[in-house]
Write a structure and sequence with these properties.
This protein is an alpha/beta fold. It has one domain: Glutaredoxin (3-Layer(aba) Sandwich). About 35% of the residues lie in helices and about 20% in strands. The chain has a seven-stranded mixed sheet, with helices on both faces. Strand 4, helix 5 and strand 5 form a beta-alpha-beta unit. It is globular.
Length: about 150
């Protein structure tokens, strides 16, 4: 009987240990700062959740200050500001670019998709035109990160 209890305890311990694959698939918390009246930000959060990201929404009237403190350049602001994995992601950035950012871990402050482009994740309607995701370096330099 004592041996059976030991074997059961050992098996239970192995079941409780997460597999390497599930640990690698775990995605970091996405904290989204948004204007309290904005509903497209909620849709963007739902989009991220559908792609495996845990999401925390923070309604604030200090969005401009948050963007400034994170280093989002004037004129390149998106609808909301997300903090994730040590980066900012501003606006309705497609999850493929978020995944790439977190995988490659470049030496930048973050990425941004300015405005609220029609058809972008969380926005309604068909895609129109080219979306340019801009990377922002610690020194303020800007470069094209991805075009969609």
């Amino acid at each position: 009987m004592n041996l059976l209890l030991k074997i059961t305890a050992i098996l239970a311990a192995f079941v409780a240990i997460p597999t390497l694959a599930s640990a690698q698939e775990a995605k970091p918390l996405a904290t989204i700062f948004k204007n309290p009246q904005c509903s497209c930000c909620e849709s963007y959060g739902t989009y991220l959740e559908a792609n495996g990201y845990p999401v925390k929404m923070v309604a604030t009237h200090d969005l401009a200050l948050i963007k400034e403190r994170q280093g989002v350049p004037a004129g390149l602001e998106g609808c909301h500001t997300m903090l994730i994995g040590g980066y900012f992601v501003d606006g309705h950035v497609p999850v493929a670019s978020v995944d790439r950012l977190l995988k490659e871990r470049p030496d930048i402050l973050g990425i941004t998709l300015p405005g609220m482009p029609t058809g972008s994740p969380g926005m309604g309607g068909p895609k129109s035109g080219t979306w340019t995701i801009t990377a922002v370096a610690p020194d303020g330099a800007k470069s094209v990160y991805k075009r969609y």
